[in-house]
Amino acid sequence: MELSEGTEDRDFSVASLGACRIDSPLAPLVEARRTTEAYVDEGDRVLFDDTISMVAARGLPIERLPSFEPGGPRRRIYFDPAKTRVAIVTCGGLCPGLNDVIRGLVLELTEHYGVRRIVGIRNGYQGFIAKYGRDVVDLTPDAVAGINEHGGTILGTSRGQQDPEEIVDCLERLGITMLFVIGGDGSMRGAIGIGRVVGERGLKISVVGVPKTIDNDIPFINQSFGFQTAFSRAAESIRTAHVEARTVPNGVGLVRLMGRHSGFIACYAALAKNDADFVLIPEVPFTLTGTNGLLAHLRKRVVERGHAVVVVAEGAGQELLNPEGTDASGNQKLSDVGVYLRHRIVEDFEEAGLEINLKYIDPSYTIRSVPANPYDSVYCLRLAHTAVHAAMAGRTEMVVGRWHGRFVHVPMRLAVSRRNQVDPDGDLWMSVLEATGQPARLG
Amino acid sequence: MELSEGTEDRDFSVASLGACRIDSPLAPLVEARRTTEAYVDEGDRVLFDDTISMVAARGLPIERLPSFEPGGPRRRIYFDPAKTRVAIVTCGGLCPGLNDVIRGLVLELTEHYGVRRIVGIRNGYQGFIAKYGRDVVDLTPDAVAGINEHGGTILGTSRGQQDPEEIVDCLERLGITMLFVIGGDGSMRGAIGIGRVVGERGLKISVVGVPKTIDNDIPFINQSFGFQTAFSRAAESIRTAHVEARTVPNGVGLVRLMGRHSGFIACYAALAKNDADFVLIPEVPFTLTGTNGLLAHLRKRVVERGHAVVVVAEGAGQELLNPEGTDASGNQKLSDVGVYLRHRIVEDFEEAGLEINLKYIDPSYTIRSVPANPYDSVYCLRLAHTAVHAAMAGRTEMVVGRWHGRFVHVPMRLAVSRRNQVDPDGDLWMSVLEATGQPARLG
Amino acid sequence: MELSEGTEDRDFSVASLGACRIDSPLAPLVEARRTTEAYVDEGDRVLFDDTISMVAARGLPIERLPSFEPGGPRRRIYFDPAKTRVAIVTCGGLCPGLNDVIRGLVLELTEHYGVRRIVGIRNGYQGFIAKYGRDVVDLTPDAVAGINEHGGTILGTSRGQQDPEEIVDCLERLGITMLFVIGGDGSMRGAIGIGRVVGERGLKISVVGVPKTIDNDIPFINQSFGFQTAFSRAAESIRTAHVEARTVPNGVGLVRLMGRHSGFIACYAALAKNDADFVLIPEVPFTLTGTNGLLAHLRKRVVERGHAVVVVAEGAGQELLNPEGTDASGNQKLSDVGVYLRHRIVEDFEEAGLEINLKYIDPSYTIRSVPANPYDSVYCLRLAHTAVHAAMAGRTEMVVGRWHGRFVHVPMRLAVSRRNQVDPDGDLWMSVLEATGQPARLG
Amino acid sequence: MELSEGTEDRDFSVASLGACRIDSPLAPLVEARRTTEAYVDEGDRVLFDDTISMVAARGLPIERLPSFEPGGPRRRIYFDPAKTRVAIVTCGGLCPGLNDVIRGLVLELTEHYGVRRIVGIRNGYQGFIAKYGRDVVDLTPDAVAGINEHGGTILGTSRGQQDPEEIVDCLERLGITMLFVIGGDGSMRGAIGIGRVVGERGLKISVVGVPKTIDNDIPFINQSFGFQTAFSRAAESIRTAHVEARTVPNGVGLVRLMGRHSGFIACYAALAKNDADFVLIPEVPFTLTGTNGLLAHLRKRVVERGHAVVVVAEGAGQELLNPEGTDASGNQKLSDVGVYLRHRIVEDFEEAGLEINLKYIDPSYTIRSVPANPYDSVYCLRLAHTAVHAAMAGRTEMVVGRWHGRFVHVPMRLAVSRRNQVDPDGDLWMSVLEATGQPARLG
């Protein structure tokens, strides 16, 4: 998960709307405990590096080491809660915990900062655009009671971008001073556009993101919300494949999981129950054919044990499908790697004169639509709290992150600049190799 | 669930290998309680009819009313446990509870009758046939400990028939005196063939079935094992579809469930959480087009509420796909009704100029591969006990059933003669109509 | 589960407020299907007996055989939906499914009969009594949406009786014409009192009960709602006890379950996972001491296997605690049999010089407060539908039952006249003896 | 979670049995990937500090900053796998994940290092002592297959210390060269004693610990294994209390959770579902009486809302119970704070003339005996892998830790020197205060 050497050139500083001159309404709570330690020390920074060799290699004085602004409540805030009007929008695909984040934002804003006007935008960025005709939703503590026990998002969602000028028109019309965007990297790119227009117009609207990715591929955040819930459910699908495969002659279970760019769900799900024999992820290329290819190894495993389970992340093996829409053999490109593998595996067994009973499982909706598990619920709540503290303190064009176990502020541009990926040389992937027994190189 | 008027002509009597002359080894257990009521009264019968009008309409003396032989332990048994050798085979598709039944058979045979030699046949009827080269498995209490906590079947399974002569050759070679077949109606037809050959050769081999059908379509059994587990899991898939559908603009969730001939899983799963707007089952025909067809009603629902969920049993709407492999419009027949509906619904919305976000979910493997829930576990255990009692008493070519809450013996020929179906005039289907709000007739 | 020989003297006929002269609003739904079979045939009856020997022993003409009125929708109803005002009350201890029943009643009344005024009474019968000052709750389809996903009852509950005169005063004040009581046998006795006062005052108020007992001890109902959910959860507690017991030297797990008069939960929970070594239920007396007592057998089991699990229903072994509040030894009576057994087992091991690590588990609240599982959800819905059909048809002082798989009407007086109990000579108890390996007689 | 200023004086260096001269058998796996990055760089260290202010305050050159040795596979190892004989022991109370750790150790040792002789010690340290007469268990991959799906530990456990001399006698007798201790801080103190005797006798036995504490109170480990599983289950108990409390008049749910010294489980469980009104933990003192005490606030809450839920960690409020076994009022000391609070709350309501329906729930066994959830399963596996890598490289008297998201080696003496506790000034506790609405100070 290390950044490249160029890290020190990156700008870790977070934009702000202005100086904080208002006493936080949290003060009585804190004062009651006769301590001020609950407030974040504005002068401190969370180190980016975590090893002595990384720090030493910087050759920088300590105070110039790359570092993040810590999250948490500030003694002084930028916005007057009585005059703050908040909008919340959820964008992109479903992920366990969306409702938890919405609820966490609303409760923190109302119960602790005393903000009274919060609206939810319907169906992602579409909800800002007049032609879609979507009403906004009033978000009160009553409106969010218990929503965390259901999957999905009460606000609905949609994919794709909308014109940032039109979005800011809408924000102005609604008198919004604070916008929370819960979404993936596309949505954060959209939020950067919104922030740019806000700046051009000289408005004082804070734009803060809570990064959402079921794939766990967001940089600067140890584990994205919903990830644990997601891989736990994915592990059940691998179990299903294993049960199916071992009850028929020459059974092959093939499970297609999320993971466009990162194989975290596939890796963790495979480790959780140890039912998988092969795990294929975007970070580790493989070949199908040849004596060391997947097909040869799979045949061998089935002949030896009578069955096998293959787990493939949706972004794995893209190099096997050529960009013109046909695969390397000139066949029509299949819609996804799972379907492609299913076809190739069956074909390969048939060519080898081997019986095969292949069971193909694609559990995507099942995984992403469930309610957050207790860990993710707590995590969503705390991410939401951090986002609210940041926005109330006037921070903008940033997302909440988690680094070395601390909540931090990450500039939006940095958050969309790269992805977390499984390190093919790291201990997670080695654990997967050990647990599955698959070769270190397929091909 | 009523039989047709011709019931009284049916033969409810169960075949037997001969007179029971051996004292049941259960005797000490029973004697310790100083009662003989634990034994089944061989002279009694469980009434087929359950209403006064049914009985009256028979016009028969009471003792000639149609009735089943009750299941349970007999004071005297046919087989000498010390000389009994048992084979167990599981056939056809997976169903929650297969391992529970295997375990129940083994424990009852060993712990209570003292039978010492039990073998499992691998991969269904294939396991009897030499060319497949499958070894048998020794089934001891240790070998079955904890297997009920896993889905699938430890014996494996396969589909299709094998030559009954060859199967009986194998039974003779193994010295088997008692064969338990756990399988669906195809498997029971196979078992009838085995019983016929056994009879022709004058062998004394009891052939007893434990009927398996995840669809709950076995006659003379109130609820088939695994059914509750299955529809509970299916309800989760409908929930998934509902969560997905309601979070996108014009979302339609389409869930394809089991149910070739009977819509019980679809009905119960739809009632369990009330997330479905339309339930389509084999027992109730429907049309797609026209002002009262499914498509018009679905469009209306989506326009009014923003989303809808359709649940379709795999055997529903078969009349819409013509037998030559093309649908009524002459298009190539799609592989199943779920895929066909997906295509037609999207096409219909597009023709109407309506946006649609359809999410298609086919959870079959997930539903059938899970371990039995506690109810089904207990039920499997008791079915297995009943099957063992029957076989030890020399009954053959019968399956265990459950009628009016009592375990009964049902001749195999009767068990494959018809199917349980959802009664379109009964209270179950009316409850579904009420819960979904769908019209009583689609088309 | 058989009644005593005196059954034929019992009155199975259900009271009614008068003739049904109003066409059921369900008619269009039924007509659309061009059938009238959906209506219950008012002339038919569900047979009480289920075997030929029972029927023969009656020596009665068929039409006089003991039988129940079948449940279900009637072609003609007694109450005009537009003028119907309904009250619903939940009484006594929690049971999974209470919210499902409330929701089922409200949806059936509103969606299908068009009733518009339904109120919920708060905290059981207390809610009728002025001095407790509880408001009623309006019950609309919106108010009951999703309540079935939570345990407990949205109406609250309380124990104990209230003055029926005062209750009927309240019913009159509210203009109620139909009262649904969801409660146990104490509550049904209360409902009988309410029905009596209603009759004395010449009012036309239907009083219909949905019998609730987590113990499954209601007569004339194959399985009470919530029972499956309850024993499934109880099985987890036995698993806990087993895990705890087997990880320590001489571990004894002792689990106290519900079951004042009936051991169904203990039996089913013990069978579900087979972790129990001894099951003690109210129906089967046992002794502690002596060579064949529980303590001697328990010590033996622990010495042989290193651990053991004892499951005790709360009503078991009451004969060991004398009525004056002291046990047979004159010691102060302990609060319950679980605590008493814990004390006696530890004492006994210590006297025998044996190490013991006893883990005592009393999971009552956990079991009764969970949401209904999918089966119980469907079952509650259908019980509620049956109750509504009965009340709309003017039936009163009756509860809904289920007999031989059919929904039936049972007079309230009959429903409180006896209890379901585990038959010590039946196959359920024999399965428990076989699964645990415990002696048929302890003592 | 910060250490005191004296950190720099602490010794973070890990003991080692000697130089590593053997090529790791992992080499082929690594070489196949043509990379050496999979090996830990022996020269690197993981920083103890995570903020710039902490580092700056040290005033130390970078290479002398406090830091941990990173965990992971080494290029060269100390032990020859062919000659390595391993013992594994589990000590103290149950915790979800014990079987996962055992399985992870066995699989890593056998599959990847090729170690062939691994034994399990029965019932904790007792298993080393002759007088208890416990056999050792052979631990092969087959013996550990699937054990992670069950709670508890297949090795059993016991509490308390045993003579380290006798333990080392046993290790010598068995020819053990590597001992893994899975246990809490008492067990790690025992392991330190074993290491001391090993050193005194000049033996080459590596003693490596996997720290176990359901309370999450181990220092230098971000989250202890089993913690997530535990608090998830604990959240269910709080839900139970909430359901019970809100269905009765003036209902109070009181839930006693683990947490002798740290309130992490109570805090996380309370945040997971937000059903709690008061959370009491060891780190934050409170008083019962007085206008700002718990009792006054609880009464107020119940009067306002009709019900309330109190969660108490077992170590909370110990200052209220005096050391002589009597409480501050001179009453006999009750066995635990939960029982004490139950008594005091009921008494207080009665004195105030308020009805109370208190439901007391102590779910300890239920929480600790469940199987690990998928996250904890993966985490246990990776902790076990790290422990094996460390031991194979000759490290000793250390435990595996996790610091800033990295697996590290922590000297045993350091691991038992202090405890993780909830920071009363940190964001976790502030989130709890916000979620419950309880005052920052009670008393």
UniProtKB/TrEMBL annotation, chains A, B, C, D:
Substrate binds at residues 213-215, 258-260, 314, 365-368. It holds the Pfam family PFK. Its EC number is 2.7.1.11. InterPro entries: ATP_PFK, PFKA, Phosphofructokinase_dom, PKF_sf, PyroP-dep_PFK_TP0108. It catalyses: beta-D-fructose 6-phosphate + ATP = beta-D-fructose 1,6-bisphosphate + ADP + H(+). Belongs to the phosphofructokinase type A (PFKA) family. PPi-dependent PFK group II subfamily. Atypical ATP-dependent clade 'X' sub-subfamily. HAMAP family: Phosphofructokinase_II_X. This is ATP-dependent 6-phosphofructokinase. It comes from Cryptosporangium japonicum. The gene is pfkA.
